[in-house]
Amino acid sequence: MYKRQRLEDVFASFDRTPLAAASIAQVHAATLLTGEEVVVKVQRPSVAGLVRKDLRVMAWLAPFLVGRIPIASLANPPALVELFAETIVEELDFRMEAANMIDVAAMLHELGNHGYVVPRPHPTLVTRRVLVMQKLQGFNFDDVVGMQNAGIDTEEVVRTAMVALMEGAMVYGVFHGDLHGGNLFVLADGRTALLDFGIVGRLSGDRRLAFLRMMLGATTNDVKGQMAAMRDLGALPADTDLDAVIKDLRLDQPTVDPTTLTGEELVAEVQRVVKALLGYGAKLPKELMLYVKNMVFLDGAMARLAPDLDLLGEIGKISLMFAERHGERLGRELGIDHTAVAINMDGVKASFGVDTDTDQLTYRELQARRELIQKRMRDHVAR
Prior knowledge:
Layout (H helix, E strand, L loop, with lengths): L6 H4 E4 L5 E2 L3 E8 L4 E7 L3 H22 L3 H4 L1 H15 L2 H18 L4 E2 L3 E6 L3 E5 L4 E2 L3 H6 L4 H19 L1 E3 L7 E3 L5 E3 L5 E3 L3 H15 L2 H11 L8 H7 L14 H17 L6 H20 L5 H24 L10 H8 L10 H20 L1
Parallel strand pairs: 5-11
Antiparallel strand pairs: 1-3, 2-3, 3-4, 4-7, 6-7, 8-10, 9-12, 10-11
Helix pairs in contact: 2-4, 5-7, 7-8, 7-12, 7-13, 8-9, 8-13, 9-10, 11-15
């Protein structure tokens, strides 16, 4: 086994200065005796024991937060602790990470997604605490100037990321669970390298189908279908009166452009919605936490890499792509006629809070709207 071998028995060279270091592990560059350049991920000593202690504290604290701070229940602290416990088990066993790498690479291959690259784990040099993998090099994910100077289409980088995340979750129920700038870089040919597979999101069985129905409802403006899917995902109690939720949240009312509201009206609206959600026992399902976190990252990435991307146009293109590639299969799984499904752009525009006559909405414009809303709310609260 690798863990019983000396460095010189495996590597022609090994750089003891880490390329990167984090709380659980650090990464070193090395060269195998065969001449192949690799990256070696090494777990820090004693980290497993420290993590177990932290988990015990978190498990005790989570119910306390829900009881003492009601709004904390929306974030679902107990499920956060459970999710952390599950993912940290994978992160502490590099054999599981190697298996995740193989699973995601196989999924991307089956999807025909050639825009992402997963480094190959070395088949005989993986143990619980050491992972040797293929070395990949490229641009940091926030090096916009460098990528553009190299002729890389940064809008396509973002587009590929959005499609891969949604395809993985909706079609296979598998997706990288920890997207951030340190886990991604862009190769010279424009493909994106995915790193660090200690956390992988998985939606299995009925959960994946509920997630699929939720996403379908969002693009077809089926509000009750979305609410039913969210209930089935665990965001609402099983006995929830969906019609009452829709009425109380005013989801059956015409959309109001939030930029037309005063700071006082915006704060009051947020308070009303939060109060209603708390009253129904709403919470963020564990299965969606990783997906939402990834979407937040991609939102920030879009600000840097594709600020002038037309969001409405992209949603239309991606929906059409999904229908062409996966419509028949997903329709069969949901028991619906996929040819009768049509995207409702008015509903999509409503989700952004813009008028139905809006033809284009770039990320830059969306961000300006957000900043205006946030400023009005801050100014009102500061009075």
